[in-house]
Specification:
- By secondary structure, this protein is an alpha+beta fold.
- It has 15 helices and twelve strands.
- The chain is elongated.
Length: 375
């Protein structure tokens, strides 16, 4: 019961953790970024002409869920008492706001119905809001270092919290057209494209499609390449899950072997009587294996109740919390998959039964004469 329950919880937590972190990174950065193919590795993009044919080709491909133009530009936010360097991520009215709407702490996303007013709005993280002592509606100045220092006035439209330090400490969200003006680009220029795929497992297939459709001056960057440290860390979690499963299976099988040996020793006289009556070794072994299967079945049922019960409790209450700075989230995430449960139960049952065949062979070593005399 404990072995299976811990295995269920381990897989559910690791799956949930990987899903939550991946969704946060994907929600902010998209799955693939397409930018100018140059040696510019700064936060300020080079200009890319908006290519309607390329956008249409992406939108018509079933691998993709969406595409939107973006641009980045570094700047310095100054309030009355504080100063902070940030990077504006510029988006337009076609941007997918679903991630930010889930991450909003207060306020709302940028309203593009008024193009002039939209250029004055910024979304900032709760981290920056606390450092700069800003709240929704507060005004502030932002400076941009060009050939001559330029400044713009903004106000806080909304405050978000992704719990991902790399994002919350660095980025604010603004209007793409403002960055176009600040960079003196043509009205048709953008900094690049942010693409989202429908199925993350098809990320490389989507990238292969882009390599054939992109203009020659553009290059695609996968989200796994943009945040390599985080995604390598997530891969290591699979190793942790494998170690945990192996350990729990070893514990479960040792417990069942011990239980079966005790049962056989307690029933030595019965084994002797059966042999004296003509029963062969395999027939007697099957009796003990059937009994062991019954015990394993009870353990599986209780283990599922234990593991799934705690998983359901945690997913609905978020009772078990985490250090947000270390784990990028406030609570232990849970994701239960039916296939995981099915494979865990079937695998545990099969492995335990196969292992129990060896101790059940102790029956063949018992002499009927000695066993009856022992009684």
């Amino acid at each position: 019961m404990l072995g299976l329950g811990v295995m269920i919880l381990s897989l559910a937590i690791i799956r949930g953790f990987k899903l939550e972190i991946r969704q946060k990174i994907r929600g902010f950065s998209g799955d693939i970024q397409v930018q100018n193919f140059d040696n510019n590795y700064s936060y300020q993009n080079s200009a890319v002409p908006y290519d309607k044919a390329f956008v249409k080709a992406v939108q018509s491909n079933p691998l993709f869920a969406g595409i939107s133009p973006t641009a980045l530009k570094p700047g310095i936010i100054k309030t009355r008492t504080e100063i902070e360097g940030v990077v504006i991520k510029g988006v337009n009215k076609d941007y997918d706001w679903s991630f930010f709407k889930r991450s909003m702490v207060s306020g709302k996303v940028i309203d593009f119905s008024d193009t002039v007013e939209a250029q004055k709005q910024l979304l900032i993280s709760s981290y920056l809001a606390n450092r700069l002592k800003l709240k929704v509606g507060d005004k502030f100045l932002m400076y941009f270092v060009e050939e001559s220092l330029r400044k713009r006035s903004f106000y806080v439209a909304g405050i978000f919290d992704t719990s991902v330090e790399d994002i919350d400490k660095t980025f604010v969200i603004g209007d793409l057209s403002l960055i176009v003006k600040l960079n003196n680009w043509d009205a048709n220029d953008v900094g690049g494209y942010e693409l989202r795929v429908k199925d993350f497992d098809q990320l490389h297939a989507a990238d292969d499609f882009l390599s054939d459709k992109m203009p020659l001056k553009l290059k695609s960057y996968l989200v796994t390449e943009s945040y390599p440290t985080i995604f390598e860390w997530l891969k290591l979690l699979d190793v942790n899950a494998q170690v945990m499963l192996i350990l729990m299976l070893i514990v479960a099988t040792i417990n069942m072997i011990s239980a079966l040996l005790i049962i056989i020793l307690e029933r030595t006289s019965m084994i002797g009587i059966f042999k004296a009556m003509g029963a062969d070794n395999w027939t007697i072994q099957k009796i003990f294996l059937y009994n062991a299967t019954y015990l394993i079945g009870i353990g599986l049922v209780l283990g599922n109740i234990f593991g799934l019960g705690i998983s359901f409790f945690q997913s609905n209450t978020h009772f078990f919390t985490l250090d947000e700075e270390s784990y990028y989230m406030k609570f232990v995430p849970i994701q239960v998959k039916f296939t995981d449960m099915l494979l865990l139960n079937a695998g545990t049952l099969a492995i335990c039964l196969l292992v129990l065949i060896i101790p059940s062979m102790l029956v063949t070593r018992i002499s009927p004469v000695k066993a009856i005399r022992f009684k």
